[in-house]
Write a structure and sequence with these properties.
The structure is a single chain. The protein is mainly beta. Strands 2, 4, 5, 6, 9, 10 and 11 form a 7-stranded mixed beta sheet that branches. The chain has a 4-stranded antiparallel beta sheet with strand order 1-3-8-7, with no helix packed on it. A hairpin with a 5-residue loop joins β5 and β6.
Length: about 120
């Protein structure tokens, strides 16, 4: 069994910062891509940022220059540093990871979500 456990969400004023963490635990052989999505009320879940096992990163245009994704492969953990937060960043943030429990096949796992609320 593999679990992704998120932490670090909360309430912050516009212009402030938050750091999200997501640790993958359980029967893990290797992890490829890790990333963050977000879902605002009444909207679809959108990709925010992704990082490969080699450290290549991708960002949605809406967060470029403000958010930074990183990972600690030894800890199977991915982070999202969010700076210059805006009210429109308010959403439930979900992490995901492509995990192999052995062999060549990878499955995508999701965290339970953590609420980020940015007040104006």
């Amino acid at each position: 069994q593999v679990q992704l456990v998120e932490s670090g969400g909360g309430l912050v004023q516009a212009g402030g910062s938050l750091r999200l963490s997501c640790a993958a635990t359980g029967s893990i052989s290797s992890i490829n891509d890790m990333g963050w999505f977000r879902q605002a009320p009444g909207k679809q879940r959108d990709q925010v940022a992704t990082i490969t096992s080699g450290g290549t990163t991708y960002y949605a245009d809406s967060v470029k220059g403000r958010f930074t994704i990183s990972r600690d492969n030894a800890k199977n953990t991915v982070y999202l540093q969010m700076n210059s937060l805006k009210p429109e960043d308010t959403a439930v943030y979900y992490c995901n990871a492509d995990v192999s429990r052995g062999g060549r096949f990878f499955n995508k796992y999701w965290g339970q979500g953590t609420q980020v609320t940015v007040s104006s």
